[in-house]
Specification:
single chain; mainly alpha; two-stranded antiparallel ribbon; 14 helices; 2% strand; transmembrane
Length: 379
């Protein structure tokens, strides 16, 4: 099937991707008013965008890949300004909330839960876009965003491990078939920092340098994260530091929920002797819902992102079911389903089985794929 193209150079096409900025006044309102207003951010990101997906439908057109990068300025701009916006909001909350006598403990935690939803669903997602770019400014902004949630190793893990080994036993964040999120989450919290460190140490070793060389980005990660903790302590005291850690934990949970659903049950064919087929669009779940793609800057076109990792988000392509497996709904509602493993498996396991019949009809024994028992791929 031929997918029609859309002119992404039009300003009207770019502006909906700025919708993430509308979440900022919601968290400010929650901090100032308290009460039920602390629920506005999670309600908007999960339920409102699910409703908007139903109302706006799918974006089933693709951008013209010949579009020059100079024409993508409005798209790039929202990712470039996000760190100062998020940082300013976080700094203000760390100063204001611990001193806000009208907020009780539950309300303070609720405000920073909402902040964590923003820094996870938007901030980490924008850092993901930025870390894939070549410009030094964009990569630094990615590092700064990740430091605000104490998850700096994600850059190394994502670029050095996930994109190389997705769909193989070497990739921790490829969720295995029948693995519930509540088993997946603690596993990746342990395995991802280790795999990120090993990947950076191995790269240094190939250059003839020891792990303690100053080129190891973990020194930068540690310094930035320590700086954020000290800033939180200085602005809000021990209460501020505790609230900062709450928002970081919520952001990490948001990230790993998305990681879980992006590749659940999808594996690359083992070709023998530690060799695996190349990454194809079929190895990531794809979905086209407009509103959630506006919020998540086309992250849901994940099949194309893995196929062409350096492609900027407005140019990411969509695929039909003949080329890539399709999620039934957008990420907001799918992440809710992932938190309820029986519901998730009821929705997704039949789709994984259909994917296997469609793309790998000759494989009859999936046990090694299900349990991650195939040989580790060659480094």
């Amino acid at each position: 099937m031929t997918i029609p193209t859309v002119d992404v150079q039009r300003l009207s096409h770019a502006l909906p991707f700025w919708i993430s900025l509308a979440l900022v006044p919601l968290v400010v309102l929650g901090a100032v008013r308290g009460g039920w207003t602390i629920l506005l951010v999670p309600a908007a990101t999960w339920w409102l965008f699910t409703l908007l997906d139903r109302l706006t439908g799918k974006e089933e057109e693709n951008a013209d890949l010949s579009t020059p990068e100079a024409a993508l300025g409005w798209y790039r701009a929202v990712t470039l300004i996000w760190f100062p916006v998020q940082f300013a909001l976080l700094v203000w909350l760390l100063w204001y909330v611990p001193r806000a006598g009208h907020l009780d403990l539950i309300e303070r935690l609720g405000v920073f839960f909402g902040m964590g939803v923003i820094s996870g669903a938007v901030g980490i997602n924008y850092s993901h876009e930025l870390m894939h770019q070549k410009s030094r400014l964009e990569r630094w902004l990615a590092d700064l965003l990740l430091a605000t949630v104490l998850y700096s190793h994600f850059r190394s893990e994502h670029l050095r491990v996930h994109h190389l080994w997705v769909g193989t036993p070497r990739d921790p964040v490829t969720a295995r078939y029948n693995e519930g999120f509540h088993r997946f989450f603690p596993r990746v919290l342990v395995q991802c920092p280790r795999s990120a460190w090993s990947a950076e140490a191995a790269m240094l070793a190939r250059r003839g340098r020891p792990w303690w060389d100053r080129a190891n980005p973990f020194w930068r990660y540690g310094a930035l994260q320590a700086g954020m903790c000290l800033l939180a302590l200085g602005l809000g005291g021990w209460a501020g530091l505790g609230l900062f850690l709450v928002q970081a934990a919520v952001a990490i949970w948001q990230l790993e929920l998305v990681n879980y659903i992006e590749h659940y049950g999808l594996t690359r064919r083992h070709l023998g002797e530690g060799r695996y087929e190349h990454v194809l669009p079929r190895h990531s779940w794809n979905t086209d819902y407009k509103a959630s793609n506006w919020l998540l800057i086309n992250l849901q076109r994940h099949s194309d992102h893995h196929y062409k990792p350096d492609r900027r988000f407005p140019l990411l392509q969509t695929y039909d079911a003949d080329e890539a497996p399709q999620l039934p709904l957008g990420y907001p509602v799918m992440t809710i389903a992932a938190m309820i493993p029986p519901l998730w498996k009821r929705i997704m396991n039949p789709r994984v089985k259909d994917w296997r019949r469609r793309f790998y009809p000759d494989i009859t024994d999936w046990h090694a794929y299900n349990k991650g028992l195939n040989p580790m791929p060659w480094q």
